[in-house]
Amino acid sequence: MRLPPFSLTDSMIAVTSFTAAELATAVLAVVLMVLLSILGYRAWQRSRITPAERERRRCAWIMATGKMGDAALVEIHENIVYYSYGVRGVEYTASQDLGLLGRAHVDLADVHALSVKYDPRNPANSIIMSEDWSGLRAR
């Protein structure tokens, strides 16, 4: 079965012509969209919180609302302290990088006991040291 040949007639071809004002409006709209996109992206990048700031806010939240308890020192590896503590019969093990606090080198050789501050709504969220408080107890 053969199909008849297809041809375009003049009435089927649509020729669109824009005036200079319409072209200028379209170009300005595209430029405005690109500029707004760039400004939005830069504002979004500036509003992002750095990991150090996020950790500082977490420590400040726990300092303000946290409960205090006793913790046992599990291991020390460079500036990372691993510790365990119990809350309402549940044993938690956590770690904290003390090098991120910006203090001078913390001497961990004499530490034998720890105090921990934890979030009462999420006891796994805990700290043993912040910029304003230290739960390290020396001998």
From TrEMBL:
Transmembrane feature ranges: 12-39
The entry's keywords: Membrane, Transmembrane, Transmembrane helix
Domain of life: Bacteria
Protein name, as recorded: DUF3592 domain-containing protein
Species name: Solibacter usitatus (strain Ellin6076)
